[in-house]
Amino acid sequence: MNFKTGDKVVVIAGKDKGKEGKIIKTLAKENKVVVEGVNVVKKHQKGNGQTPGGIVDMEAPIHASNVMIVDPKTKKPTRIGHSTNKSGKKIRVTKKSNSSLD
Known about the structure:
Helix content: under 10%
CATH class of the largest domain: Mainly Beta
Number of helices: 0
Largest sheet: 6 strands, antiparallel
Number of domains: 2
Strand order of the largest sheet: 6-3-2-1-7-8
Strand content: over 45%
Order of helices and strands: EEEEEEEEEE
Radius of gyration: 17 Å
CATH topology of the largest domain: SH3 type barrels
CATH architecture of the largest domain: Roll
Shape: elongated
Number of strands: 10
Distance between the termini: 15 Å
């Protein structure tokens, strides 16, 4: 998976198609990401000594194939490629504008 926490992405499929947000968490083994404000579900939470119980809204994971990274230059969805910088380190680059993401 080419996504990292903090990347700005746009949803390209599903009920939240077109929404943008930052990645909060990546689940590499399941190939899923959690995006803020996307795929919001209601969770029944039991209370404990510090917090009361009730129904809370939280973001659920979405499959990584349903999101695309937003190009920092063009502000449009793009794919991710890989390249090496001058010191030989592997970096992520956008396919549209060939700008670095790292």
